From TrEMBL:
Superkingdom per UniProt: Bacteria
InterPro entries reported for this sequence: PRTase-like, PRTase_dom
Recorded GO MF terms: glycosyltransferase activity
Name under which the protein is recorded: Phosphoribosyltransferase family protein
UniProt entry tagged with the keyword Glycosyltransferase: yes
Gene3D superfamilies, per the entry: 3.40.50.2020, PRTase-like (3.30.1310.20)
CDD domains (alphabetical): PRTases_typeI
Segments forming domain Phosphoribosyltransferase: 29-191
Keyword annotations from UniProtKB, A to Z: Glycosyltransferase, Transferase
Length: 217
């Protein structure tokens, strides 16, 4: 397995980005993590780049029939992004998922308040935004997040992950200006297979990590 845990993955990812930043190609960097799993990875990247860090809360949409299989993603109050092939296979329509989307959006708002309180989200306008997660499987959440960020005017939009599906990496690349993925194993199925320790990241761990950055900002 290439990574011991998310901290190790973040350190390896940071090495690649620090080398890139040293060339002057990453000015005015803002690191954004997709919680929860992306937070410990992004923290190492932000520390290495001496950059501010925050979270962009996004949620997966699934169904009670197959809760382990995401069929969509949602960010803030943006319209949901769906995987059309999955909808067709399950004989579902967007209208039938309205209640699911409402519940997921309410959960996003709860997490945003938990992680950020009354502090406003950071402005991405004119900045180099590095969006970080712990892996790229279906890519639905990453695409929804990237499209949300693009509409807010970053100068450069970078997606950085330690590991990802080669097929997903290829399809997501068009959504950002640059994509950094350290490992693209041909046998990729789920992100957790590529970590020795892939324990869940708690809400408390997320808030403590963010507090550490904001306390020194």
């Amino acid at each position: 397995m290439p990574f011991r845990d998310r901290t190790h993955a973040g350190q390896e990812l940071a090495l690649r980005l620090v080398e890139w930043a040293g060339s002057g190609e990453l000015p005015s960097v803002l690191v954004l993590a997709l919680p929860r799993g992306g937070v410990p990875v992004a923290a190492e990247v932000a520390r290495a780049l001496h950059a501010p860090m925050d979270v962009l809360v996004a949620g997966e949409i699934s169904t009670p029939i197959r809760p382990e299989t995401p069929i969509g993603a949602v960010v803030a109050d943006d319209p949901p992004l769906y995987e059309r092939q999955s909808l067709a296979m399950m004989h579902l329509s967007e209208d039938r998922l309205g209640d699911v989307v409402v519940r997921e959006r309410n959960e996003l708002h709860r997490l945003e308040y938990l992680f950020r309180g009354r502090r406003p989200p950071p402005s991405v306008d004119g900045r180099t935004v590095v969006l970080v997660d712990d892996g790229l499987a279906t890519g639905l959440t990453a695409v929804a997040a990237l499209r949300f960020l693009r509409r807010h005017g970053p100068a450069r939009l970078v997606l950085a992950v330690p590991v990802g599906s080669p097929r997903t990496v290829a399809s997501v690349r068009a959504e950002c200006d640059d994509l950094v993925c350290l490992e693209q194993p041909p046998g990729f199925h789920v992100t957790g297979e590529w970590y020795e320790d892939f324990a869940p990241v708690s809400d408390l761990a997320v808030t403590r990590t963010l507090h550490g950055f904001h306390a020194t900002a």
